[in-house]
Write a structure and sequence with these properties.
- With about 325 residues, this protein is an alpha/beta fold.
- It has helices at about 20-30, 45-55, 75-90, 100-110, 220-230, 240, 275-280, 295-300, 310-320, and strands spanning about 5-10, 10, 15, 35-45, 60-65, 90-95, 115-120, 120-125, 130-135, 140-145, 150-155, 170-175, 205-210, 235, 265, 285-290, 300-305.
- It has a 7-stranded parallel β-sheet, with helices on both faces.
- A hairpin with a 2-residue loop joins strand 2 (about 10) and strand 3.
- The structure holds flavin-adenine dinucleotide.
- Flavin-adenine dinucleotide binds next to helix 6, helix 7, strand 16 and helix 9.
- Its cofactor is FAD.
- This is Electron transfer flavoprotein subunit alpha/FixB family protein.
- One of its GO terms (molecular function) is electron transfer activity.
- Belongs to the ETF alpha-subunit/FixB family.
Length: about 325
């Protein structure tokens, strides 16, 4: 029996999010001969992105382009998405484990009477069974889960699964009419964007993070310069956010964002368990701390005992010369 796989694409600041291409790769890991794949692209004035998305998918790209979908609104997005899912009759729906994905996926799972596995970091498919790896206990352990029967909804953690390669045959673009229900209970009047920089923190390959040791908002400047040279993003501990040095949009940890960059540079961060929950899966962790006993050194691959205000500019200088 053939199955339909559907990726719910995400757009951020006018561009496709990298996690969408990772979700397409997840589909290629799961799909068997004869299965179909589709992506659903929702937003306003996003039709030009459909052809870009189509390059990575041998199947269909369904586009829902309407002014009412300009900003994420759970009700409107759910209504639009389920309209398309009704025609696709999916076996598996794949979301990014992002703010939008985490909101929409359970609604869709309930609608489809599907099981859901969230925050997947790896997929193993033997051909007969697919297992999904996800972190538990704030990243201290991993569990492997399988579905038994029925439709499936999964969300994948950004930056863990490779991005899809270009498809041999680009997908067909299907434009779908959307007419918002007149009785939408919430209407977005204004959106204030709080970003942590030029590069999306959850998708950045390099993250330079500051803690209370940075001591002030001004103290983040050297970290921003290092992140700029690396083409990365700046993050923070809750200690730094609580102290008012930076915005909570930058917070990494149990109650903040989860990041898994190639390199995570922790500057003036002690390494509390709640912070580790958000960054311990980074490929390489570099810690800079004045205190040789700081717990962050227990998870760090490389540790520098020293003053971050001396070490960070030196790193920036060295990386600039590479
Ligand atoms: P501190 O613990 O004060 O550490 C500062 C470090 O900077 C010290 O190790 C010090 O040696 C070093 N330092 C000082 N000056 C310098 C210098 N010049 N050069 C180099 N090093 C220097 N925290 C998070 O980060 N994310 C979360 O999501 C989160 N969620 C939480 C949820 C709950 C329910 C609770 C209870 C707590 C949570 N916390 C979270 C808070 C967490 O417990 C810690 O309090 C917080 O992470 C500490 O931040 P910090 O490491 O920046 O500060």
């Amino acid at each position: 029996m053939s199955h339909a796989y559907v990726v719910v694409a995400e757009v951020r600041a006018g561009a496709l999010r990298q996690v969408t291409l990772e979700a397409l790769h997840a589909v290629s890991l799961l799909k068997e001969e004869g299965d179909s794949a589709a992506a659903v692209l929702i937003g306003s004035q996003i039709t030009p992105l459909a052809s870009e998305l189509a390059e990575y998918l041998d199947g269909e790209v369904h586009v829902l382009d309407h002014p009412a979908l300009e900003n994420y609104n759970a009700e409107a997005y759910f209504e639009a998405l389920t309209q398309v899912l009704g025609t696709l009759n999916p076996h598996t729906v794949v979301f990014g484990h992002t703010a939008i994905g985490r909101d929409l996926a359970p609604m869709v799972a309930a609608h489809l009477n599907a099981g859901q596995i969230s925050d997947i970091t790896a997929i193993q498919n033997t051909g007969t069974t697919a297992s999904f790896t996800r972190p538990i206990y704030a990243g201290k352990a991993f569990e492997q889960k399988q579905f038994t029967d029925g439709p499936r909804v999964i969300t994948i953690r950004p930056n863990n699964i490779p991005t899809a390669a270009k498809a041999a045959n680009p997908a067909t673009i299907v434009e779908t009419e959307y007419s918002p229900a007149v009785d939408l209970k919430s209407v977005i009047k204004d959106v204030v964007r709080k970003t942590s920089g030029k590069v999306d923190l959850t998708e950045a390959k390099f993250v330079v993070s500051g803690g209370r040791g940075v001591k002030s908002a001004e103290g983040f400047k050297p970290l921003e310069e290092l992140a700029d040279v690396l083409g990365g993003a700046v993050g923070a501990s809750r200690g730094a956010c609580d102290a008012g040095y930076c915005d909570y949009a930058m917070q990494i940890g149990q109650t903040g964002k989860v990041v898994t960059p190639e390199i995570y540079i922790a500057c003036g961060i002690s390494g509390a368990i709640q912070h580790l929950a958000g960054m311990s899966q980074s490929r390489v962790i570099i810690a800079i701390n004045k205190d040789p006993e700081a717990p962050i050194f227990k998870v760090a691959d490389y540790g520098i005992v020293g003053d971050l205000f001396e070490v960070v500019p030196l790193l920036t200088k060295e990386f600039r010369e590479i």
